[in-house]
Amino acid sequence: MPEPENPNQNNSPVRSRFTSIFRGSLRWIERGLAGFGAMVAIYWLTMDVSVVLSPSMQPTLKGTNPDNGDRVITEKVSRWYRTPRRWEVITFITDSGEKRMKRVAGLPGESIQMLRNGELLIDGQPVECPESLDLKYLRFGNLIEGKPVPCGDGYYVLGDDLKDSDDSRFNGPVPSHRIMGRAWLIVWPMSRVGWVH
């Protein structure tokens, strides 16, 4: 008596081709997910994109809401091998968990004060702002009495537009562990694309 014919026997080439395509597709998906995961990890470790929501850093950074705010890339790499420098714009996290961008005026271990004429002193010595910035700081908050304010282990930061800047004059120096990195590049809107000075 002859053996019954296997109904799947004739489909084996089709099935093996389907299996091969399926396995190949799974490999491509797996590689794509791994590549995407690697890109996310690299982004998370090396940069951050923020939207400027306050006019406190005008004219360097502009914006008042998510629709018109500059999109700024903060690079985190330089923090691995050096500390923030005076007059750089840094991105940091406030006590309430908000991201802010301000300009470094005082460094750890220094003291900062302001005379009546608006002149900024570091450790009792006048310090000049770079001419390209044209900054005019006002005596408010902890600078109002003209006494030296110690930076301690933190960074004394100020906004470029002193009419509207919630900075170290009111909140004290920014601790090093709260600093994310250096505000580096404006990427949007197109009319504002360029390095953060």
TrEMBL record:
Family: Belongs to the peptidase S26 family.
Name under which the protein is recorded: Signal peptidase I
Membrane topology value: Single-pass type II membrane protein
Gene3D superfamilies, per the entry: Umud Fragment, subunit A (2.10.109.10)
Species: Bremerella volcania
Keyword presence, Nucleus: no
Subcellular location per the Swiss-Prot or TrEMBL entry: Membrane
Active site positions: S56, K102
Name of the coding gene: sipV
